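Sequence in, structure out. Go.
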Amino acid sequence: MEIIDILSKLEDGEITKEKAEGMIKDICFNTTRLKMIDNLARIDLCRESRSSIPEVVYVEGKKPEIAANALFELAKERGRAMGTRINSNFIEHVKKTVPLGYSVKIYDDARIAIVWKEGHEMNETGGRIGIIAAGTSDTPIAEEAKVTAMEMGCRVFTAYDVGVAGIHRLFNPLEKMLKQDVHILIVVAGMEGTLPTIVKSLVNLPVVAVPTSVGYGVGKDGFAAMCTMLQSCSPGIAVVNIDNGFGAGVFSSLIARKIAKNE
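Output:
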């Protein structure tokens, strides 16, 4: 629980001043708590209290046992934990070692693993996000953004394979997202990366553009797509790093949650 939530409960008369003071002291005391894993990794148990962004385990480059242990410890403390950029060795290890009373879900396309304590319930924030991907090759990065946003309590609406090579495919799913009153759009594209500019020219919402490393020749590794997005002539676009679906999901969730809270 964040301090603003405690103050809201106090204002509404749900808790006493003494109770609110104790809860705030607990938050202040706990915002620097770290947990050492295998004498190597230091997981931040209270990142979410400070920043509204939960601690997440980046699995790539880590030994499977260290990454899995970090996930299990986070789930023990928070009830739920997420690992990104997972691989087959990690998946095999985490499935074999998940503790009793915990469950694991693997999102293969997103390369994300979720571990949670059985009985733990997700908190929905009311945030609504639309995610649009230009081509099917961009789907894994879009899925990474989707799962990240869902883990931050947002509802997500998706439309894939609606790129500029057949722009007529975009209009119907975009209209549906607008009818769902989404707060922000994430647009994922590789190759020349034009789709975010077109989408922003059609909507009155902020757009988070995600370049992907899909492409070849001058478009190799996503640099052409990134340059196009940074050079966009449609104002109102923010660009994240190449293949950074996670970052797009976090950024968009913070905005969507804030808007939803004020609705």
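Check: The CA atoms of residues 56 and 82 lie 5 Å apart. The mean pLDDT is 87.
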